UniProtKB/TrEMBL annotation:
<comment type="similarity">
    <text>Belongs to the TAF10 family.</text>
</comment>
<keyword id="KW-0805">Transcription regulation</keyword>
<feature type="region of interest" description="Disordered">
    <location>
        <begin position="1"/>
        <end position="20"/>
    </location>
</feature>
<feature type="region of interest" description="Disordered">
    <location>
        <begin position="133"/>
        <end position="162"/>
    </location>
</feature>
<dbReference type="GO" id="GO:1990841">
    <property type="term" value="F:promoter-specific chromatin binding"/>
</dbReference>
<keyword id="KW-0539">Nucleus</keyword>
<dbReference type="GO" id="GO:0006367">
    <property type="term" value="P:transcription initiation at RNA polymerase II promoter"/>
</dbReference>
<keyword id="KW-0804">Transcription</keyword>
<protein>
    <submittedName>
        <fullName>Transcription initiation factor TFIID, 23-30kDa subunit</fullName>
    </submittedName>
</protein>
<dbReference type="Pfam" id="PF03540">
    <property type="entry name" value="TAF10"/>
</dbReference>
<dbReference type="GO" id="GO:0016251">
    <property type="term" value="F:RNA polymerase II general transcription initiation factor activity"/>
</dbReference>
<dbReference type="GO" id="GO:0000124">
    <property type="term" value="C:SAGA complex"/>
</dbReference>
<dbReference type="GO" id="GO:0005669">
    <property type="term" value="C:transcription factor TFIID complex"/>
</dbReference>
<dbReference type="InterPro" id="IPR003923">
    <property type="entry name" value="TAF10"/>
</dbReference>
Amino acid sequence: MDRTRAEASTEETYPGVPGIPRADVDAFLSRLDDCQPVIPDELTNHYLKRAGVREPDVRVTRLISLVTEQFVQSVADDAYRCAVQRHQAQAKDKRERGYDTRDKRIVLENEDLAAALKDHGVNLHKPPYYVGAARPEEVEEQEEAVKEELNEEPTEKKRRSN
């Protein structure tokens, strides 16, 4: 592993992994066989199969589990930082209003998680409306209103022409 950049650049690499020698990639992949990530292989395999992967390799499963674990940890750290900032701002406001500020508990709220996920490119908030998401009763009412409008149009035209 203590190679110079010149030695590493002359060694053979895998396609799509430039700058990392094949031997280092192979050593990393062999360590994945012994690794036990927090996310169980069964759970990762379930979602891989739902995504269309027929029989995932154990190393691929564990690599995806490790990446997912790292992502969740990163989001949790960011959400905690947001919660601490919010708590400090609230403590200042409470102190100004005369409240007791001895409560030092940090409570993670949905707002904190949403802010952290937004930094990672995930939008947690639902859009204000959904196309085709009306309740069946509303759809029936709308259909009846359209039918009534269609039936009334010819009679209104007749009245106007008279």
